[in-house]
């Protein structure tokens, strides 16, 4: 009788240990620290904390209309992202430095939201004269880019550079001031909500930052009014 009790006790202790470890492993997932994300209205990336349903939100900066071409030769415009949350960055296919890591981390986002139709990815080439549709297609195939989820785009250089510097502010958080002729190069990922508002900026080279971005996208999806 004593032996049976001892065996049962051991089984119970093992069960408690397994349950505890399971709970702890589930808590490893990074979460947003707030109920809703801030808005970013200008190049300093000073957070603006507003209720997503407030009237003031309508006065904030939004991404303007654009027209580019993706790796399949399809036209990509602001309407492609209508009612979508998206993450955007700026790269070029021959970049030997930061771009491979950025592309890899965009791939992490693609995997995280591969079954989520609300979330898209947008990567702009900063050497559009070299990164033709054919070149982007080869790059997409080499990096397992899923065209329904992730658009690699080329187009007019001035439009792409204006989007990067004047719309997404991708360089300006570093205090950089460049003229139109200077090269656009940044590791920043920008999070945009369904109403074309900027809701976050992230280091595209940093694994922790990417996990925070994944968590913030999930928070954004839960926001009322978004």
What report would you give on this structure?
The protein is of the alpha+beta class and 226 residues long. It has a single domain, classed as Glutaredoxin. The chain has 5 helices and 9 strands; from the N terminus they run αβββββαβαβαββα. The chain has helices spanning 2-26, 99-112, 133-142, 157-167, 207-222; strands spanning 39-40, 47-48, 67-70, 75-77, 85-91, 119-125, 150-154, 188-192, 198-203. The strands form 2 sheets. It has a 7-stranded mixed beta sheet, with helices on both faces. Strands 1-2 form a two-stranded antiparallel sheet. Helix 3 links the parallel strand 6 and strand 7 (150-154). The longest helix is centred in the N-terminal third of the chain and has 25 residues, at 2-26. The protein is globular. Mean pLDDT is 86; it is low at 1-27.
Structure in a nutshell:
This protein is an alpha+beta fold. The protein is built from five helices and nine strands; from the N terminus they run αβββββαβαβαββα. The longest helix has 25 residues, at 2-26.
């Amino acid at each position: 009788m004593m032996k049976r009790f001892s065996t049962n006790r051991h089984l119970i202790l093992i069960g408690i240990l397994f349950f505890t470890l399971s709970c702890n492993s589930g808590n490893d997932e990074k979460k947003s620290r707030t109920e809703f994300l801030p808005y970013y209205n200008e190049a300093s990336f000073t957070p603006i904390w507003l209720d997503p349903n407030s009237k003031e939100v309508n006065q904030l900066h939004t991404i303007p209309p654009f027209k580019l071409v993706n790796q399949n030769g399809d036209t990509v415009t602001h309407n492609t992202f209508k009612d979508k949350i998206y993450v955007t960055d700026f790269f070029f296919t021959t970049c030997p430095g930061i771009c491979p890591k950025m592309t890899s981390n965009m791939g992490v986002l693609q995997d995280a939201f591969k079954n989520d139709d609300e979330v898209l990815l947008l990567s702009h080439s900063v050497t559009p004269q070299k990164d033709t549709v054919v070149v982007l297609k080869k790059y997409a195939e080499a990096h397992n880019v899923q065209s329904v989820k992730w658009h690699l785009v080329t187009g007019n250089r001035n439009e792409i550079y204006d989007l990067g510097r004047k719309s997404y502010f991708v360089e300006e958080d570093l205090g950089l001031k460049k003229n139109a002729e200077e090269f656009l190069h940044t590791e920043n990922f920008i999070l945009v909500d369904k109403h074309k508002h900027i809701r976050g900026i992230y280091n595209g080279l940093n694994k922790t930052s990417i996990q925070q971005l994944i968590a913030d996208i999930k928070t954004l999806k839960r926001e009322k009014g978004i």
